[in-house]
Amino acid sequence: MSAQTRRTASSPRIRGRRLRLPMALSAAMLALSIVAVPSQASALQLPNPCGYTTPRSDSGAEVAAIKQLKANYFTNVDAKNWTGLRELLAPDVVADTSCSLGPIFFGRDPLIAFLKLSLGAAVTHHRGYDPKIELTSPTTATGLWTMDDVLVFAGTIGVHGYGHYSDRYVKVDGRWVVKHSKLTRTRFDLVDPNDGTTIIRANVSLTEVLALVNALTGG
User: Does residue 3 lie within any of the structural domains?
Assistant: First the structure.
């Protein structure tokens, strides 16, 4: 189906989705922490809560298993396989986006419920690369990933985001799961929703994104 056909087919459904787009996009931006850190923190010269430490880069079978865990995490989010995603997370996982003014999720069920709401209708593509995984004990590890993702909402808005994941992992019953994950966003661009790569506007603030969404949807 062509991009034009997708935009014109089933117009009542699409109109309904577009009317809900500002709320869904706002939720997604909050969930993915695409927000700037307040400048007051630097003015007060407080410790930087959004900084991170690069772990030692270990190797071996356990490290390979953790890298596969993260790859499966990205795959399940993009496939909207929430059952599969749930199995990759500790029951008491903490997903922290506070350094970008986002929420902190305590437990995998609240996190997955919010991802369903914010990304369930979006087309997404996540990538993680240059991982640094350090084994801190036979059953614990830390990791740092550089990441980027492309999020397309209702075939209308494309967002390309960048940042880092700082993770902690635990091995339970012979299987690695995510225990703690902190996502720090560094930038995002508006991109062509048809190809996900052509930059329309670079380094756009959340306020500008929401204003554009409202203009396009009549919100």
Answer: no
Mind listing the pLDDT tens digit for each residue in 190-217?
999 999 999 999 999 877 766 765 665 5
Band the pLDDT of 11: cuts 50, 70, 90.
very low
CA atoms of 129 and 143, how far apart (whole Å): 11
Reading the block at residue 170, the tokens are: 């635990």
Check if the beta carbon of residue 34 is closer than 8 Å to that of residue 185. Answer: yes
- The C-alpha atoms of residue 114 and residue 96 are separated, in whole angstroms, by 13
Would residue 206 count as lying in a domain? Answer: yes
Range of the domain at 33: 8-44+54-217
Cβ neighbour number for residue 157 with a 10 Å cutoff: 24
Q: How far apart are the first and last CA of the chain?
A: 28
Residue 1, in any domain of the structure: no
